[in-house]
Task: inverse folding
């Protein structure tokens, strides 16, 4: 009896939890039988609207676009695109990268970064960074007493000139010291010879030292300015970059693995605990679940759209030409165009060779004919521009086809330029207005495809749940 009551009690708890979950995030729609929760739709809707500057769309305006997106994902899954090895590898690799921040101990990384900052702050101390310029006479042979005496006399002369009002730059010119030797640099305590630091840190901004000797030679140093060691937030990006190079994330992952092993219990190793946590990320962290769902669907959407629409719109020559002829009245020129080739060459003979190659060919064939017949070592001797040109598009077309302007500049070494082709009053082929026709044909294919998907897959929207989007 007690066992039965316990089972009833547990069942009621499970039912209550399930009911609560359903109420808190109800199903907004189904697409081909696949549920879309309200939170998933809200994530997409809010993200889409945040990228718009004109106030965005209403839920009702966005809904059809979202349904079309989901229909394309359903089609991709029906075609098995989600089972292709390349898709699964790309998704798994990118998911692992996106999951990384959830599988490390961020506190460990933060503490390590601050430890580095505190250590550097203590090393640099209250003196901070000094910005200096200096004149140095290098003493490479310390045992040469004559040389040392000469250098000392020279640095003393430099100092005398500085005291007389000369600038560092003026003195450098007079003594033949390269300008680059005076370029400012920064130091902190512990970076330079003790003699150098003693002189530099004793100066005030704008002052220069008396001559002094270090193991490197003879110096006069000028203190330009100083700055204190900055805040942790200021240095944090640079510290994090350094820690990344030292595999700090791997260390933080190990720490997190030990924490998770303790949390899960059951004798799991840190590696096993990390694997379990990884498998729970989508359900444990809604923002990660939404991100990965968006990425998964986005990959499928891109792949299926490329196959069904984008590649066809770009490469279906027969379809493009047929579409152009059917909608020919839509495509017009405001002014006549020159359709053909602008040929420049270093000799008339080389230009005539190109003209012979394309003689009797359509403009659409020019490129393939030239590519097939022009030897590679001859390409530097000619330049061919093929297309449909309006006045103002090409200076040579303006002059030679339309009688306007003085022409352009010939490429260096070229001596002749001619046109091959003719003037057309209106488009005669899709190639003449390829950009516009391709865009329109893509939209035509897209609309046709979406209509077929709406017939193929059932979509059911819960209007009552839709009313609660961003309002619950």
Result:
């Amino acid at each position: 009896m007690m066992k039965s009551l316990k089972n009833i009690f547990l069942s009621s708890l499970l039912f209550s939890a399930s009911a609560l979950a359903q109420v808190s995030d109800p199903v907004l729609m189904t697409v081909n039988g696949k549920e879309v929760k309200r939170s998933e739709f809200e994530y997409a809707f809010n993200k889409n609207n945040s990228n718009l500057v004109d106030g965005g769309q209403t839920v009702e305006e966005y809904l059809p676009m979202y349904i079309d997106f989901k229909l394309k994902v359903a089609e991709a899954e029906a075609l098995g695109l989600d089972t292709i090895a390349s898709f699964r590898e790309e998704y798994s690799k990118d998911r692992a990268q996106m999951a990384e921040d959830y599988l490390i101990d961020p506190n460990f990384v933060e503490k390590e970064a601050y430890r580095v900052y505190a250590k550097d702050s203590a090393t640099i101390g209250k003196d901070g960074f000094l910005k200096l310029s200096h004149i140095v006479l290098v003493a490479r042979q310390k045992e040469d007493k004559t040389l040392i005496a000469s250098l000392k006399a020279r640095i003393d002369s430099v100092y005398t000139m500085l005291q007389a009002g000369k600038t560092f730059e003026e003195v450098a010119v007079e003594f033949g010291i390269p300008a680059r030797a005076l370029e400012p640099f920064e130091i902190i305590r512990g970076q330079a010879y003790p003699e150098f630091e003693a002189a530099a840190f004793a100066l005030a901004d704008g002052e220069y030292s008396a001559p002094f000797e270090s193991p490197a030679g003879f110096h006069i140093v000028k203190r330009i300015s100083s700055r204190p060691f900055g805040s942790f937030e200021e240095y944090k990006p640079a510290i994090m970059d350094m820690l990344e190079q030292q595999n700090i994330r791997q260390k933080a992952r190990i720490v997190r693995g030990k924490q998770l092993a303790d949390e899960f219990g059951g004798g799991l190793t840190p590696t096993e605990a990390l694997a379990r946590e990884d498998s729970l990320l989508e359900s444990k962290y809604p923002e990660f679940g939404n991100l990965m769902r968006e990425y998964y669907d986005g990959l499928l959407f891109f792949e299926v759209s490329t196959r069904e629409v984008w590649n066809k719109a770009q490469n279906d020559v027969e379809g493009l030409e047929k579409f152009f002829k059917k909608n020919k009245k839509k495509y017009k020129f405001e002014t006549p165009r020159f359709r053909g080739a602008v040929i420049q060459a270093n000799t008339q003979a080389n230009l005539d060779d190109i003209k012979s190659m394309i003689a009797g060919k359509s403009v659409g064939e020019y490129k393939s004919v030239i590519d097939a017949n022009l030897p590679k070592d001859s390409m530097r001797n000619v330049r061919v521009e093929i297309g449909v040109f309006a006045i103002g598009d090409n200076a040579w077309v303006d002059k030679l086809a339309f009688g306007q302007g003085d022409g352009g500049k010939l490429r260096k070494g070229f001596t002749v330029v001619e046109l091959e082709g003719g003037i057309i009053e209106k488009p005669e082929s899709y190639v003449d207005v390829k950009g516009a026709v391709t865009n329109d044909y893509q939209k035509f294919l897209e609309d046709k495809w979406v209509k077929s998907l709406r017939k193929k897959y059932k979509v059911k929207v819960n209007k009552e749940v839709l009313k609660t989007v961003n309002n619950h």
